[in-house]
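FIELD: query
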Amino acid sequence: MSKTWHKHKMAFLERNANRGSISTGPYQIDNSCKFEADNTEYLERDPSSAGDRQKFTTSMWVKRTELGQASTIFGVYPTSSVGDTTVMQFGFMSTDKFQLGLQTYYVFNTARLFRDTSAWYHIVVAFDTTQGTAANRIKLYVNGIQETAFDVEAYPNQNHTTGVNFTEPHRIGTLISNSWYFSGYIAEVNHVDGSQLAPTDFGEVDDDSGIWIPKAYTGSYGTNGFYLDFADAANLGNDASGGTDFTKTNIAASDQGTDTPTNNFCTLALQVRAGTSSEIGPVREGGTYMKQDGVNQYVGFFGTIGVTQGKWYWEVYVPSRSASYGLVDYIGLHSMKTIPVGGAATGGTSQCNYVLHYGDYNATVNGTNSGQNTAAGLPSYGTDGAGKTFGIAFNADDGQITYYANNTRIGNAGIDIFDLHDDMAAGTFVHPFIQVYDNNLYVNFGGCSFWASPSDYDKTDANDYGSFAYAPPSGYYALCTKNLAEFGG
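FIELD: result
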């Protein structure tokens, strides 16, 4: 391993503390499934016969993209004839703590929060209610480490019988079909009927980096176990272990992602508000969609991955023009040098129009000077921007940015970013940045391009990563951890 690679990998680790987000190790996960609460998306399967209802293990990798909402990632909800004694669910509370519940009697709420939308969590829930020691009956592991600090901790009675592996609806992405929907990505789902397993059956510590990474599960699945690898876009409910497939509800081929625990892609960050608005606008569809129609304030979003070097490409699609305020979508860059978490990041002394790049303090707009950053040939798009896909090619090595509209360059090539380049040289990370006023906007970093048919987003970078509408310019790459490993941060 080169010292350069080690330096850049450690920089990423320092900025993204959760494990499971660096592409190391021999086992690779190629696909995930994107779930969106607003679309009531979930998978469901009803076993035809009962398995072991006291011993089972569920392992899955999860990347959250919306915070502050109660959501279930796996649950079993009984029919009315059975009653509520078989209910089991686990997911996230509206407080962003993790919750595991059996009926309403045995509930576990973690003391810590799960608010990192930049990284993947490996969740393992292992049951064996036949255990004599109460604390051994349910074990929760996150990124290979057992959770032991709970605000609420109530273990079931010995030999308690759950609805898991019974002939009841088993759902991924919701508990019941009208609430508690999950928003984010789920990958590598292993459910084992009949065994209480350890996280080391599904993951391991990478010797080189010291982070928790996935490994292939090689054991038996039991009577009602299943394995979802989401490799078949046409059938994202496929049980790759050979069992009965899950039925899809509102899940389409475009919900297949290449954002995975072994190649983590940039998405839109939720933790930072940017603009004059006191509210944080919602981010939807796996951190790729800003739904801002009717929000008459400037609301901005940072990408979850920042860089100091390399050449990077992403796309933004403008679906329509607001009838009230026109097309006000700001597309470019920003550092977080002076932006506190939860604080406002404004454009400086004057608002900006259409396509731009942001600096630390002020922005250059329409080829005119505004504040510290000055550059000629920065493009602007008004009403003609609706229905176009804008490509952003960011050369962090040379401190330049180039814009494209439907694969045709607009404005000058290699527009200097001045102050931002100086900041990067000093070690400040620069992030993709988008600010919206009363408009909806889509961003595509390559990990999931849900808003169109997959055949419309079948272009990749030269390393065969990402799913884009147009091929990135030569030498430019998708913002993902595999490319960061090669080209640095």
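FIELD: remark
Residues 3-15 form the longest helix (13 residues).
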